[in-house]
Structure formats: C-alpha cells, structure tokens
C-alpha cells in the first residue's frame, strides 16, 4: 500500500518535471508577457483534513503569460477553523502566499475559459487551545489555560476552474484547489477579477 509520503514525492516529481519542460521551451519564453494584468477576490468553502469545513477568503493577482496558453498568478489565502467541546476551544489558522501556473484550455466560445494548474505556496499555521476555568464548587476553581504554536510549511496546490467574462473588465471566477501540506485542504471558491489598466 502506498504511503502518504510516497504519494507526495510522486506529485512533487511530476510538478518539477512540468516546470523543467516549461523552462527549457524557448518558444514559451519568447511568447511570455509577464506583468500585473488582473486583480481579484474570492470566497468559499475550505475542507480541512482532520477538522471541519470553514470559510476561506483569497486575493489573486494575474501576472500575465509564460506562453500563449500558460498564465502565472499570485495568491494570498486565509481560513480559520475552530471547534468547541465541553467548554474548551481548539482552532487552526492558515495564512498562505504562493504562485501558480495555469494552462488555459482552448474553447470555441470566449464566454467560458476553463483551466488546470499547479503551484507552490508558504503556509503560516497557528494552532491554539483555550481551556476555561473549572468551578468545582465550594470556592475551588481550577484555572484555565491557553496554549498556541506556530509553524511555517511549504505546500503544493493542484487546481482547476473556469473564468466567465461579465463585462469588458470584469470576470466571474471559480476555483477548485487541493493543497498538499502539513495540513491537507480542499477548497471550492468563487469570486470576481478586474482588469488592470486599459
């Protein structure tokens, strides 16, 4: 049976192979047009491995094209998952920053633009536990306690979605992303992006 570590290594090798092929393609770099093209916001559901589902918020910057069909984008995302049991509260927060390359599929209609991609990101996790005071009666109180820990981990995103033009400068966006990291997560978001400049 394959282990989680073995699967992650295979995904990393596959992603690195794609990046190397892109880097070696002279035609791809000759057709590149890197620079801020669009900015966007999105929101949706994040399903956290080992936890529950929570609201996720994101910012996106479309940085142009590596080639005619491959676009590069920068992302910032936030979610906070909190659960309560017997008065105690435990939570995990993730703030991440990363970049993704997206292959834009050719379609007959300009009204629907699907894509698939992959990327890397840094995840700044904070885990916390809060235990309230316990009143045992008779004036006996066990004081509560609060504990927290932070960590920074590398993650890999595998994603897909589509863009739908709403006007000359505004697109409706959807994005489905699976993130392999210290805390695996699956997100489904929708949002809008706005063209920058003329």
Can you describe this structure in just a few lines?
This protein has 198 residues and is mainly beta.
What features would you describe in this structure?
By secondary structure, this protein is mainly β. The protein has a single domain (4-195), classed as Porin (Beta Barrel). The chain is built from 2 helices and 10 strands, in the order ααββββββββββ. The protein has helices at 4-24, 26-30, and strands at 33-48, 53-65, 70-85, 88-104, 113-131, 134-137, 140-142, 145-165, 170-180, 185-195. The radius of gyration is 21 Å and the shape is elongated.
Structural class: mainly beta
Strands, total number? 10
Write down the CATH topology: Porin
In CATH, what is the class? Answer: Mainly Beta
CATH hierarchy: architecture: Beta Barrel
Q: What is the makeup of the main sheet?
A: 8 strands, antiparallel, barrel
Helix content: 10-25%
What's the tally of helices?
A: 2
**Largest sheet, spatial ordering of strands:** 1-2-3-4-5-8-9-10
Low-confidence blocks of residues: none
What is the string of helix and strand elements? Answer: HHEEEEEEEEEE
Report the average pLDDT across residues.
Answer: 84
**Domains counted in the coordinates: how many?**
1
Q: Which descriptor suits the 3D outline?
A: elongated
**Beta-strand level of the residues, as a percent range?**
over 45%
